[in-house]
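Per your request, structure below.
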């Protein structure tokens, strides 16, 4: 485990890929000197990874930033290994405890985490706020930008979530994938500027005659690896919905 902040350690899952970057970041949170911990995003169902994370227990509670499988698939098995309960916004991922919602405070590992509902990447996306850091799941990544996963993800919601995170100032970003970032405020501002740039490009593509989401992708994302175009098309569909509202 790599200690990233005073209270947050990172166990990187061995599932690198185009969408997962270096792999899923599983976060182990505890006050220094505290024996127990909170685990955020156990990751996919990869037994060696789950077993490794479990060695950093005992685990007070398991939290999910959202329900995408690369963050949540291993949660039921990890709950078996640690006898901890799983908490999430989406009730289909909750195991043995109540779910989570905006404004909740989660305690464990000697810490208190405040829950922020930050929809946009997905409707069930959450961030978890610490005094000096914020865990952002896929809402802000450590490298590049994220997908607004239409139709579950809604661009208007995502922009509002980014504005909330912009208010976090110099808190360290502990993302779901990629390296930590020094400033939540700066990262959110960059994401907002990127989204505005993409919206302008989509408007221009439509004005030039693009007649379908795919045609918009082929115009706007010409500098992006075509392997990523299916994901880009989700964001484009979200952008088109936003522009038509």
């Amino acid at each position: 485990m790599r200690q990233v902040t005073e209270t947050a350690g990172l166990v990187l899952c061995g599932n690198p890929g185009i969408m997962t970057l270096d792999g899923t970041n599983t976060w182990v949170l505890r006050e220094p000197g505290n024996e127990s911990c909170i685990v955020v995003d156990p990751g996919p169902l990869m037994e060696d990874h789950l077993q490794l994370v479990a060695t950093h227990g005992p685990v007070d509670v398991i939290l999910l930033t959202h329900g995408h499988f690369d963050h949540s698939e291993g949660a039921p098995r990890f709950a078996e290994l640690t006898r901890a309960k799983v908490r999430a916004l989406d009730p289909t991922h909750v195991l043995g405890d109540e779910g989570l919602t905006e404004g909740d405070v989660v305690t464990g590992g000697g810490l208190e985490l405040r829950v922020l509902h930050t929809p946009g990447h997905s409707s069930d996306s959450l961030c978890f706020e610490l005094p000096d850091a914020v865990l952002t799941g896929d809402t802000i990544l450590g490298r590049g930008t994220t997908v607004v996963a239409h139709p579950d993800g809604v661009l208007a919601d995502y922009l509002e979530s980014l504005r909330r995170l912009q208010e976090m100032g110099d808190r360290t970003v502990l993302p779901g994938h990629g390296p930590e970032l020094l400033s939540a405020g700066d990262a959110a501002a960059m994401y907002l500027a990127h989204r505005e740039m993409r919206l302008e490009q989509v408007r221009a593509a439509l004005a030039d005659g693009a007649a379908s989401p795919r045609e918009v992708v082929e115009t706007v994302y010409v500098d992006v690896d075509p392997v990523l175009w299916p994901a880009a098309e989700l964001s484009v569909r979200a952008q088109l919905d936003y522009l038509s509202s």
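The radius of gyration is 18 Å.

Regards,
D.
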